[in-house]
């Protein structure tokens, strides 16, 4: 009887997994039929995903979702943005509420192997740091023993913070908030001495303070934070589409194809450019998309460098240098497989 019950249970589990996989495999068709990409973003972080007073979203994570919409639907505006806290983000993706999570999310072993999710790549290589009030007179993270520290709940930031202070033999008082905006408000109101987050977020938060010059980002970087979009496991077709949207943007920058010259480049004799923009080969067909899928991305959103610079780079209020996010040929580690 025990063997029979076990066999039935195993069979039911297989049916459930199979049904979930079949549902997940419909994402590309569902998006096409719906005529819209559902994208999970932050509740508001300058440079990454932030709505303005009219409700229009901007940021590098936002632009990536628009690039997916341009590739799949031919129109970068066909996106519905769903603001999510750190605690809500994975459940929203797992449940099918959103098609993509593009929300300053760190790629880790546990998240990649135990949540039923796939990271498609890295849109921003980052690292965790600390921001303090200048009046505190602190110049190093090693001077923070006993400090109260604002941190986001349910994040790798919270775990890295505990690891760092344990290794350094220091104590701290965590002040935990659910949303990034609440964490920033806690810091500015004086509820904590220090705010810890990815360094890109620290610069974004500092830019929105009433007096940005009152805060200093300390030099220490205590973690690796590869940030990138996430999709559900069990749907290789959708995984491939979203993954190659990023790769197309990186290849476009490497090949010198931009939103300004894309029309000219569709007439290029360069074989690599011809495959990218769809004038040669069947790359779009292999993804279940139109031949001009990548050309639409570049024309409507731009290549990776354009997306980076206008949102978080030196052309933005954040003024973050490319650093590791430069192309491999320019001293960084951004690298994409070839389109061929």
Overview of the structural elements:
There is one protein chain. The chain is of the alpha/beta class and 340 residues long. The protein has a domain at 127-225: 3-Layer(aba) Sandwich (D-Maltodextrin-Binding Protein, domain 2). Helix content is 42%, strand content 16%. The strands form 5 sheets. It has a 5-stranded mixed beta sheet, sandwiched between helices. A 3-stranded parallel beta sheet has the order 4-1-5, with helices on both faces. A two-stranded antiparallel ribbon has the order 2-3. β9, α6 (156-168) and β10 (172-177) form a beta-alpha-beta unit. α3 (60-73) packs antiparallel against α13 (293-300). The protein is globular. Residues 1-24 have low confidence and may be disordered.
How are the elements arranged and paired?
Blueprint: H1 2-24, H2 27-34, E1 37-41, E2 50-51, E3 57-58, H3 60-73, E4 79-83, H4 86-94, E5 100-101, H5 109-114, E6 117-119, E7 124-126, E8 128-133, E9 147-152, H6 156-168, E10 172-177, H7 180-188, E11 194-198, H8 199-207, E12 215-217, E13 225-227, E14 230-232, H9 236-255, H10 262-265, H11 271-277, H12 283-287, H13 293-300, H14 304-311
Helix pairs in contact: 3-9, 3-13
> What gap, in angstroms, lies between the N and C termini?
56 Å
Rg is 22 Å
Task: Give average pLDDT, whole number.
Answer: 92
- How much of the sequence lies in strands comes to 15-25%
Helix content: 40-55%
CATH architecture type of the domain at 127-225: 3-Layer(aba) Sandwich
Summary, kept brief:
The chain is α/β, with parallel strands linked by helices and 340 residues long. It has a domain at 127-225: D-Maltodextrin-Binding Protein, domain 2.
């Amino acid at each position: 009887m025990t063997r029979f019950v076990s066999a039935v249970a195993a069979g039911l589990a297989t049916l459930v997994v199979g049904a979930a996989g079949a549902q997940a495999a419909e994402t590309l068709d569902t998006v096409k039929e719906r005529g819209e990409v559902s994208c999970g973003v932050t509740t508001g972080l300058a440079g990454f995903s932030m709505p303005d007073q009219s409700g229009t979203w901007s940021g590098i994570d936002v632009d990536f979702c628009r690039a997916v919409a341009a590739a799949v639907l031919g129109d970068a505006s066909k996106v519905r943005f769903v603001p999510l806290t750190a605690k809500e983000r994975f459940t929203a993706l797992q449940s099918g509420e959103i098609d993509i999570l593009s929300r300053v999310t760190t790629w880790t072993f546990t998240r990649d192997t135990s949540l039923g999710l796939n990271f498609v790549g890295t849109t921003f290589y980052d690292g965790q740091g600390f921001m303090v009030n200048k009046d505190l007179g602190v110049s190093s993270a090693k001077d923070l023993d006993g400090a109260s520290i604002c941190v986001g709940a349910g994040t790798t930031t919270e775990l890295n913070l505990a690891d760092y202070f344990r290794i350094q033999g220091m104590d701290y008082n965590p002040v935990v908030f659910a949303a990034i905006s609440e964490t920033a408000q806690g810091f500015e109101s004086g509820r904590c001495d220090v705010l810890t987050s990815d360094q890109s977020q620290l610069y974004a938060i500092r830019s929105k303070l009433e007096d940005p010059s009152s805060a200093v980002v300390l030099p220490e970087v205590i973690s690796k934070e590869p940030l990138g979009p996430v999709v559900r496991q069990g749907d290789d077709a959708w995984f491939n589409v979203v993954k190659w949207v990023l790769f197309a943007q990186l290849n476009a920058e490497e090949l010198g194809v931009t939103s300004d010259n894309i029309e000219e480049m569709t007439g290029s004799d360069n074989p690599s450019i011809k495959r990218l923009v769809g004038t040669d080969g069947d790359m779009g067909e292999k993804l279940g998309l139109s031949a001009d899928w990548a050309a639409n991305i570049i024309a409507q959103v731009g290549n990776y460098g354009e997306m980076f610079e206008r949102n978080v780079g030196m052309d933005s209020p954040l003024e973050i240098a490319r650093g590791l996010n430069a192309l491999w040929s320019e001293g960084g580690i951004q690298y994409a497989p070839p389109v061929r």
